[in-house]
Amino acid sequence: MPFYMSPETPAVVERDKRHHLHPYQVFESFAADGALPIASGEGAYITDTDGKRYIDAVGGLWCTNIGLGREDMVEAIADQVRMLAYSNPFVDMTHVPAADLATKLAELAPGDLNHVFFSTGGSTANDMAYRLAQFYHAINGRPEKRHVISRVDAYHGQTYASVSIGGKPGDRVEELEFLDNVHLLSSPNIYRYGGGLSEEAFGDKLHAEFVEKVAELGGPEYVSAFFAEPIMGSGGVVPPPANYLARIWEFCRDNDIIYVSDEVVTGFGRLGEWFSSETIFGIQPDIITAAKGLTSGYLPLGAVIFSDRIFDVISAAGQGPGYFPMGYTYGGHPVSCAAALKNIEILEDEGILEHVRDIGPYFMEQLNSLRELPMVGDVRGSHLMVCIEFVRDTATGEEYPYQVDIGKRVSNECDARGLIVRPVENLNIMSPPLIITREQVDFIVATLREAIPPAYAEAEKMMADLEPAH
């Protein structure tokens, strides 16, 4: 494969540092260290420009579900480029891959979610879901239903609307503005915020908080939508209490509040299901948003899959403007749709969802064996969506201060041993390709077992330097 400029690592790093602003780039450390330049990938592995190979336990960014470098995907993409590289998706034009993919998604989605709007990714899908909910209520004669409810630690994307709906503290910096009709409820993270309550009692508390918030906003007649990831992703891989989300969905159903299930991460096999809302959590959403595993990261694509009920209202003759005023130049791009169709075919033909149902519990079991190590406070998640939370005191849950950057310390130790994990403050998040094997799981766990003790020693040394002498 040709390089456009020098492939030598120092040259790549220097060009990247000089010209490339990365998402969430930490300016001080990036100026000193730069980024790790990746040259190639195959299956669950990536290789840097020095030729060092790593297991990518992050799966790109929750997305390389079928693995990298598949020739059948390459050919499907190339064939579509030869056939039709682009087609206008607006108003009264379509193309075969979009029509076929919309039909397939309606088939896979639960209940009456029979309509699909294509976006360019998860952020734009959630942005569209927000606007669709507002549009639906206005067309339905209830324009006062404008308030949106989400949760602290939620992540729904990076457009103005989707980041406003998100609740990650690190995203909501005071230098930026956010929508004022979005209201955040408590995080469902029982390890961090449960206060010693049982799972059932914590779920009751969260449900009561939701009902109280609706009342505070003036009642259901003023609430447009509730957004929720079935399992929170970037906010710390937070599974919900068992008695929580389904009860909120029932309240939404009974009060015409649109329930948006953000399955950008959980969809397309990460939990062993096409979509987890109904099969795992007992929820029949009004809208499901999807991206990431939809194409396994081969090309950008997002989808908003929504109900007959919503479509029937917004498309009714004589109501509203008579059209939905939203669209993206690259929404439903024919090459991306062809990649998604091939990706779904691979997931079906190779039994990858069934594999996840087998390997996922093994992954969780092996990771839980790390609880015996110092500073491993919690291991949580489901199937191939997990994280480890590091704390200074496992008995009290006392956290390391941000200066220690403990998640990054552990990930650096893993990098040196040929493993990529994702550091997010005091967490290491993992979402490996769905094709991961037991041998690769064993390598991940063994590497973490080696990496955590030296990171702990360095953290404690730093803490000794930070704490005043007595």
Overall number of domains: 2
Helix proportion: 40-55%
Rg estimate, integer Å: 23 Å
The CATH topology of the largest domain:
Aspartate Aminotransferase, domain 2
Number of helical stretches of at least 4 residues: 16
- How much strand? 15-25%
Total beta strands: 15
Order of strands in the sheet with most strands: 4-10-9-8-7-5-6
Kindly report the average pLDDT value: 95
Structural class: alpha/beta
The termini sit apart by: 60 Å
Shape type: globular
Q: Uncertain segments of ≥5 residues (pLDDT<50)? A: none
CATH architecture annotation of the largest domain: 3-Layer(aba) Sandwich
Largest sheet: 7 strands, mixed
CATH class of the largest domain: Alpha Beta
Briefly characterize the structure:
It is built from 16 helices and 15 strands. It has 470 residues and is α/β, with parallel strands linked by helices.
Could you walk me through the main structural features you see in this protein, from its secondary elements to its overall organization?
The protein is an alpha/beta fold and 470 residues long. The protein has two domains: 36-66 and 351-466, Aspartate Aminotransferase, domain 1; 72-349, 3-Layer(aba) Sandwich (Aspartate Aminotransferase, domain 2), CATH 3.40.640.10. The chain contains 16 helices and 15 strands. It has helices at residues 9-19, 27-33, 59-62, 71-83, 96-108, 122-139, 160-165, 190-193, 199-216, 245-254, 276-279, 308-314, 334-349, 352-368, 406-416, 438-466; strands at residues 38-42, 45-48, 53-56, 113-119, 147-151, 182-185, 223-228, 258-262, 287-290, 302-307, 376-382, 385-390, 419-420, 422-424, 427-430. The strands form three sheets. A seven-stranded mixed beta sheet has the order 4-10-9-8-7-5-6, sandwiched between helices. A four-stranded mixed beta sheet has the order 1-2-3-13. Strands 11-12-15-14 form a four-stranded antiparallel beta sheet, covered by helices on one side. Helix 15 (406-416) crosses helix 16. The protein starts with 8 loop residues before the first helix and ends with a helix. The model has no long low-confidence stretch (mean pLDDT 95).
